[in-house]
Amino acid sequence: MDSRTVALMRTTFKAVAAEEGGPERLARSFYAILFTDHPHIRDLFPAALDAQRDRLVKAIGFVIDRLEEPGALLPFLAQLGRDHRKYGVTAEHYAAVGESLQAALRGYAGTELWTDEVERAWRAGIGLIAETMMSAAEQEDTPPYWTGTVVEHRAVLSNLSVVRVRLDQAMRFAPGQYVSVQIPARPRMWRYLSPATPPTADHEVEFHIRAVSGGWVSPAVVGHTRVGDKWLLGAPMGGLGVPRNTRRKLLMVACGTGIAPLRAQLMAMTQRRSNPKVHLFVGGHHPCDLYDLPALNDLALAHKWLTVVPVVESDENPWWHCESGEPEPAYPGLAERRVGQIGKVVAAAGPWPEHDVQIVGSPSMVQTTKFRLMAAGTPAEHIRHDPLF
Ligand SMILES: Cc1cc2nc3c(=O)[nH]c(=O)nc-3n(C[C@H](O)[C@H](O)[C@H](O)COP(=O)(O)OP(=O)(O)OC[C@H]3O[C@@H](n4cnc5c(N)ncnc54)[C@H](O)[C@@H]3O)c2cc1C
């Protein structure tokens, strides 16, 4: 895509999205136009669209920011196209979405900003995005989605569950990738989750899910998942991973369930003959939040290349945490627990100028940690994370 087209798309999108309440209004207008002009498309979306709106605008922003990086954008769009097969979308749906998005943008940009040249730029940009997604979907020979049965549900914290799902057929995913998941209690509300284990011979996938208060899906997973429930999984997405035979040292930073895609990669690395040195910082608010330390302790004890550093913001458990009365378990494989904000702790333990870095957690944790590492001398191009939506 030429730089003039990119600049025109970026300027209009930023002008609309930067306004107070702009993203929300743009998304509302887009869905209103889409469902009025193409009412049959409404069935593809969940009844409640609030979370959907936020994600839509973030996803458009993510794509717009990468229009001049085809090496990163095209594989992302191809994955998105393969994932969208789960909705049964057709070329007609892509066209309807493209037209409605342009109509919504035109409405907010106004005649001064929305010139014929801007219109052509958006048409070309949306056409390229749709073409990339559709062509990746057409070339794919895997199922549009995978079906699986919950075989275990373990509450590891009051608001965090480990769920194991046995798929009816193999899914080839790379450890570190994520998949969209639909549970029976929340039809059409797909949410991304990261497998916490590499692919297994019996097609079992483990997920770690934290209940986000006020969320539509995660509290239902943690509160109501039963063995025997049928889950649907979309095609794998994301680019985190450690190439075989790499010599570059690794720094991994996770908060909460962010540990899932990192431990999947570490577990896969244990099957390799040699590995670079890996430093993993795993964080939580309180000591009781560090639910996966037993598994990480085992990994670190068995593999000298791995150093695991637990980090907490407060060294005390909160008053509402029910202590078992037992002393805290000792984890001889782990480094001493550090106290502080995880980005600060990791940056202070550096410098990490030569390391490949992966950060996984909430959007704010990822941004803050990335900022701290860059300020401490880690080049931005060494730092990877999943899209923040
Ligand atoms: C690449 C990727 C991988 C992910 N992997 C996992 C995983 O392995 N395990 C897991 O538990 N979650 C994971 N998530 C988050 C998950 O996809 C959902 O966003 C999350 O479970 C909330 O969904 P919900 O339906 O409960 O909340 P929604 O109904 O979607 O949101 C309700 C409200 O909560 C806010 N919100 C959403 N997520 C969070 C959050 N994390 N913290 C604070 N507020 C939030 C929303 O902005 C909204 O205002 C991942 C997300 C991404 C992008």
Layout of SSEs?
Elements: H1 3-17, H2 22-37, H3 50-65, H4 70-84, H5 91-113, H6 116-139, E1 146-157, E2 160-167, E3 179-182, E4 191-193, E5 204-210, H7 218-224, E6 230-233, E7 250-255, H8 259-269, E8 278-284, H9 293-302, E9 306-312, E10 338-339, H10 342-348, E11 356-360, H11 363-375, E12 383-384
Parallel strand pairs: 7-8, 7-11, 8-9, 9-10, 11-12
Antiparallel strand pairs: 1-2, 1-6, 2-5, 3-4, 3-6
Helix pairs in contact: 1-3, 1-5, 1-6, 2-3, 2-5, 4-6, 5-6, 10-11
Bound molecules: flavin-adenine dinucleotide.
Flavin-adenine dinucleotide (FAD) is lined by residues 51, 54, 178, 191-194, 208-210, 212, 214-218, 257, 260, 362, 386, 389.
Query: How many E-type strands?
Result: 12
Largest sheet: 6 strands, antiparallel
Name the CATH homologous superfamily of the largest domain. Answer: Globins
N-to-C span: 25 Å
- Give the CATH level 1 class of the largest domain: Mainly Alpha
Uncertain residue segments: none
Beta-strand residue fraction: 15-25%
Can you tell me the CATH architecture of the largest domain? Orthogonal Bundle
Helix-strand sequence: HHHHHHEEEEEHEEHEHEEHEHE
- Give the strand order, joined by hyphens, for the main sheet: 4-3-6-1-2-5
The count of helical stretches stands at 11
How much helix is in the residues? 40-55%
pLDDT averaged over residues: 94
CATH topology of the largest domain: Globin-like
Helix/strand-derived class?
alpha/beta
Instruction: Kindly provide the radius of gyration, computed on alpha-carbon positions and rounded to a whole number of angstroms.
Output: 22 Å
